[in-house]
Each structure stands twice: as structure tokens, then as C-alpha cells.
Design a protein that fits this description.
Blueprint: H1 13-22, H2 24-43, H3 52-65, E1 69-73, H4 79-90, E2 95-100, E3 104-105, E4 108-109, H5 110-116, E5 127-131, H6 134-137, E6 145-150, H7 156-165, E7 170-176, H8 183-186, H9 188-199, E8 205-206, H10 207-217, E9 234-238, H11 253-265, H12 269-286, H13 292-305, H14 309-324, H15 328-344, H16 348-359, H17 362-386
Parallel strand pairs: 1-2, 1-6, 2-5, 6-7
Antiparallel strand pairs: 3-4, 7-9, 8-9
Helix pairs in contact: 3-4, 7-9, 11-12, 11-13, 12-13, 13-14, 14-15, 15-16
This protein binds S-adenosylmethionine (SAM).
């Protein structure tokens, strides 16, 4: 199992679920508007990845708590900013200071990109973009922080910085992206934050659970989809009065895979096998399907290494099946990645199936045609230049 989650935080699970009743109408409208915005960003190759539930919870909390001062660290191309700005526009109250280290994106000033990626209905007067390292820029904005959204550098030293420099300034709500569940060990930020919370007995709520509960209670039914995936964000309130004893964190799938790899290379067969069994169970029960192809591919290769050929084939088939349901972009890279593993392990039947799947994708043919066409285009360009 992943990290145990509690509902004892001030911002607890039932509270967040009740907000879904209150803001259902607004969220439906927001989801529709943001779906249009999402596709616009996709077309322009601007990454927009934040679980729908995470964006919605952020919207509802900003609507509910009506913060004056929001810090967003960091906006990247501005997808998460859309959720914040839409809520501020609806309030209508407060400002968001967004801190981004990238000075330019595709040769254009980052602020321009962030602003052009906002839905036209939002009030951009409420958005202040700061370009530079958040560690240098945040002290320039004074005042207590009512709402803090963190999705930036995923390393422990960065977590150490924001815990010591920003948390003391917060009197309100914090959302931290990509912390709980399988990210426990895969990012040093996650491990650092969770250990800190545990040490200080600060309860938190997992947005992963919010998503699961929404599904089981039929909330969010019929919402326009943007990024359909589970969120690994956590929410908490500071200053905290909680004295909740958080349970010890269990290992993530990624760290178990590493352990299995080490055990397999040392020929500790029993240990490796039992780790792999745990991994496949955890993957099915706890991991978002987004991660199944890579997890099962790796597990398959390790089973193969242990000489468990049938179990290896089962894992590879799961990797193949789950790749099939991935969005186009991930699908392609996953299938090629899987193909190399299958060739290496001489799983000829599965190689054939994977090839057929690759060939059945229109995007594959499109890329092939573009590839063939490109030299002609270059040759033509050279010819024109010579003339
Ligand atoms: C995962 S992205 C943020 C995604 C964004 N929230 C969204 O919804 O699309 C992380 C961003 O943090 C920025 N970043 C990393 N270290 C930073 C720092 N020290 N100060 C400010 N921004 C930083 C990166 O440039 C990157 O754009």
C-alpha cells in the first residue's frame, strides 16, 4: 500500500467533497471553458498537465476562502494559473503572484506565454508574474500568504527552502503537487515534505483520495475532461493545530523496482520475486494507469532475468494492453520502449503484436510521411536558394 492517508486535517476529505456539491454548477462551466483552453495549449505545444481534480480543488478552495494574496510556484506555461485566476475573477478579490525561473519559452518572454495561455474571460489584472528564481523573488513580495500552490523544483533542497522560508508566512491553505502515493520515494521533495509533516504531526489531505471518493460517490459526473488522471497533491492548512501521528511511509513502486533490480542482479531470487509480486499488486491497486506501461515493462524484464518466462510474458502483455489506452503521445513512446525490451527478450509473438499496434496508428504513418517528405523539402529549399 502507499502512504496511509488521514481525514483529520482541518481541510479534511468530507469538507472537500462537500465543496463539490456547493460549486458543482461553477465547476461544470469552468471545466467546459478550460477544455477549450487545454486544446488550444496542446495545439501550440504548451504542456498542460495537472489532474482535473487538483485544479478543481484549488478553484473551490480559493472561492471558499477568498484569499487576498496567493503565491504560485511555479506556473511554467500557465496551465495551473488558469484555475487560480478563474477563481480570483469569480471572487472578485485578491491577486496571484506567479514565480517562474524560465526567462523565455520558445524564444518569447515567459510572461507573454503565460498571459496568452489564460482564458480570455479571466481578469489578468489579478495576475503578477515574476521571472527569476523563486528563492530570490518571493522575499520581494511582502505580506502573509493566504494561499500557496507549489509545483516547482521537485528536490529536497527546494522543499527545505520553502518549508523554512515560505511556510512561516502562510496563514491559510497550501497545496503541494506530486507528493503523496507513489511519489513518496521517487522525488526527494516528496520524501522531505512527508517526513517533515510527520515529524511535526501535521495532518494533510490527499487529493488522490478526493478523486477516488468523487468517483465512488458519482460526483463530477459529466464534467468536461481536461487531464484525466489521479492527483498526487496534498492539501494542508497552516498554522496547524493538529497533533496527528502520521503512520510510517511505505515504499513506493519505484523504490521497490530498484530494490528488485538490485536483488535480481545479486541473484537473490526469492527476495527479487517477492518484491516483484508486491510491485505488480501495488501497480494495479495504487498506481495511476499512466504508469502501468513502464512499471509492467520493467517488472517483465526483471521476471525474465529471474527465469520466470511466463510471468514475464504476463507483465509484458499488461504493458502492451495499458499502452494501447494511453493518449497518443505517451502511447507511441511507450510502444517503442516496450518493443526494445521485447526484442531483447526475444518475445517474438509480442513483438509482432506491438508492431501491429504501432502500424495501426495514423500518427505513425503521418510521421513516416513527414520523414520521407523532409529531405525532398530540404532539397527543394536548396534549389530555390541556388536559383
Ligand atoms: C512542473 S512545472 C509547473 C507546471 C505548472 N504548474 C502547470 O500547471 O503547468 C515546474 C516549473 O517550475 C519552474 N522552476 C523550477 N525551479 C524554479 C525556481 N527555483 N524558481 C522558480 N521556478 C522554478 C520550472 O521552470 C518549471 O516551469
Amino acid at each position: 500500500m502507499g502512504i496511509s492517508l488521514n481525514d483529520k486535517a482541518t481541510m479534511d476529505l468530507s469538507y472537500l467533497l462537500s465543496l463539490y456539491n456547493k460549486y458543482d454548477g461553477e465547476l461544470r462551466k469552468l471545466a467546459r471553458l478550460l477544455r477549450i483552453q487545454y486544446h488550444k495549449m496542446q495545439r501550440l505545444n504548451y504542456r498542460a498537465r495537472l489532474a482535473d481534480v487538483e485544479g478543481e480543488v484549488m478553484y473551490m478552495l480559493i472561492r471558499e476562502k477568498r484569499p487576498e494574496l496567493i503565491f504560485e510556484i511555479s506556473p511554467n506555461y500557465g496551465w495551473s494559473t488558469n484555475y487560480i485566476l478563474s477563481a480570483l475573477t469569480a471572487n472578485p478579490k485578491g491577486v496571484v503572484h506567479s514565480f517562474e525561473i524560465l526567462p523565455k519559452i520558445n524564444g518569447k518572454p515567459t510572461e507573454q506565454i503565460i498571459r496568452q495561455n489564460q482564458h480570455p474571460l479571466w481578469d489578468q489584472e489579478r495576475l503578477i508574474v515574476h521571472i527569476g528564481d523563486a528563492r530570490d523573488m518571493t522575499p520581494k513580495v511582502e505580506g502573509k500568504i493566504d494561499f500557496l500552490f507549489l509545483d516547482s523544483c521537485h528536490e529536497d533542497w527546494f522543499a527545505n527552502w520553502y518549508i523554512n522560508s515560505l511556510f512561516p508566512r502562510v496563514e491559510g491553505t497550501i497545496l503541494i503537487h506530486d507528493i503523496a502515493q507513489e511519489h513518496v520515494n521517487s522525488s526527494s521533495e516528496a520524501r522531505y515534505v512527508l517526513n517533515w509533516l510527520r515529524q511535526h504531526k501535521i495532518a494533510f489531505t490527499s487529493l488522490y483520495l478526493v478523486g477516488v471518493e468523487c468517483d465512488s460517490k458519482g460526483k463530477r459526473r459529466g464534467y468536461a475532461e481536461r487531464c484525466l488522471m489521479r492527483s498526487w497533491a496534498i492539501g494542508l492548512s497552516l498554522p496547524s493545530t493538529s497533533t496527528y501521528e502520521l503512520p510510517a511511509f511505505t515504499e513506493s513502486v519505484w523504490s521497490l523496482l530498484q530494490q528488485a533490480e538490485t536483488a535480481a542482479s545479486r541473484r537473490e531470487l526469492e527476495t527479487a520475486e517477492s518484491l516483484l509480486n508486491e510491485i505488480t499488486q501495488m501497480a494495479m491497486n495504487n498506481l495511476s494507469p499512466d504508469y502501468w506501461p513502464t512499471t509492467f515493462k520493467k517488472a517483465g524484464s526483471l521476471f525474465e532475468q529471474l527465469g520466470e518466462k511466463e510471468e514475464a510474458s504476463r507483465c509484458f502483455k499488461r504493458a502492451l494492453g495499458s499502452s494501447f489506452f494511453m493518449p497518443d503521445l505517451d502511447y507511441k513512446s511507450n510502444l517503442f520502449y516496450l518493443l526494445t525490451a521485447l526484442l531483447k527478450h526475444r518475445k517474438w509473438q509480442l513483438v509482432l503484436m506491438t508492431l501491429l499496434l504501432i502500424l495501426s496508428r495514423p500518427s505513425f504513418w503521418f510521421r513516416l510521411i513527414m520523414y520521407i517528405y523532409r529531405p525532398t523539402k530540404n532539397r527543394l529549399a536548396r534549389l530555390v536558394r541556388r536559383i
